[in-house]
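SAMPLE LOG
Freezer: B-3
Tube label: C17
Construct: single chain, 189 aa
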Amino acid sequence: MLKHLVVLAFFVTAFSVTSYADDKLPLKVECSGKHVVEFSGAEYPFDLSGEAKVSGAVLAKGGKDALKAIFGSLKDNENKDIDDKGEPVTDVSGKFDVADDGAISGNVKIKWKVKGNNMSISAKLEGTATVKDGAVTSLTLKGTDVKVAGEWEWGGEEPAKLTGEGTLAVSSEKGGNGDKHDDHKEHKK
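STRUCTURE (predicted):
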C-alpha cells in the first residue's frame, strides 16, 4: 500500500511540475482585410482568422518558432481552392518576445498565395502574457502598423501591385490551467 502511495505521489508531483509547459494554449487568431489593386482600385477580401493550439513553453521561449506555431496553420477562408479549402499560409517570419514583466513585442510577416499570386500581411506586435512555471498560460496581442501587400499576374507586362488594409489580433480563450485571458498578474518566467 505504501509503495502505491509513493508512486501516486510521484506522478502527481511530476504532473503538477510539467502541466503548464506541456499544455497547449488555445488561441483565437483574427487576421483579415482586403487587397486593393493600385491601378484600378478593385478590392479583394482575405480572412486568415482561425484557431491554433500552441505549447505554452514555445510561446514563453519566443522567436520564430512561436510565430510559426501561432500563424503557420492558418488558411485564407475567403479565397478557396478547387476543393473548397482555404489557401494555406506558406511562410511566417519575424520576431516574438515575451519580457519578464509579460510584455509581448515583436513583428510578423505572414505570406500565402491566392491562385498562385503572392500575398502578405505584416505588423508590429504588442500585447501581454501571463507566464507561470516557464510557460505562457494566457495572452492577448494585437498588430499595429499593419501593412498588406501582394502581386497579381493578370496577363500584362508587369504584375499588378496590391496594397490594402488589415487587422491582426490574437487572444487565449483560457489558459491551459483555466486562467482567463485578462488575468495577467503573474509574469515570472
